[in-house]
Specification:
The chain is mainly alpha-helical and about 250 residues long. The protein is built from nine helices and no strands. Helix 2 runs parallel beside helix 5 and helix 5 packs across helix 9. The radius of gyration is 19 Å and the shape is globular. The relative contact order is 0.16.
Length: about 250
Amino acid sequence: MGTASFLTRARGLLRIRNQLVRECLAELLATFVLITITLSSAAQKITFFETKGNILTSYLGGALAVMVGVYTAGGISGAHMNPAFSLAMCLIEQFPWWKFPIFVVVQTLASFVSAGAVYILYYDAIWHYSNGTLTVSGPRETASIFATYPADYISITNGFLDQVIGTGVLIVGVMGLMDTRNKPVPKGLEPVVVALLVLSIECSMGANCGCPLNPARDIGPRLFTYLAGWGPEVFRWVEGRGQDGDGR
């Protein structure tokens, strides 16, 4: 009885009553889960020389991570996890503009922290694979674990259009799933359908630039690699970064 009473008091003290704070914490957690699983899928693929993962498992991990993220915070913050989606919601007046910069900061921060968590998780594997040198290009580069890079032949213009089209397809697809005038997805399975949408985009549009589809997913981890030892090259458009041209 005493234990139950203590737990009840503890829950009361720890409960967060401010709605904005609750939404930000939910968005932080959902984005952290999304990016941690996504980057870990890439780290397992790269650092183990594709013996414990391949391009398909990397794409599948990223898609399922979206599903987990939506289930984690969909009922609290909406589980945007993506500044592009937050912007789209603002444009259709389903999300207040004043919250937009706050969510962008939270999403980017969560992505940065996720990159740090993956770096710790795969620390030994990264240094073993890279032969003790953190590089952005070459046969033993490891920067593409954290951020996406273009294939050798992609121009800046083509890369820009690639991301505009890929992200546009994602947003249109999600908006279509949310539209009550369309044929509804069975209740509770919306995150699964969104994950399948992401997987389809990755499988069809991932070759050029790695299909980030998410500014926070790219900027946060890229900033982490800059600070963690990969250097300013992570922000340059350099050819020959990926081993197999997939940009992941």
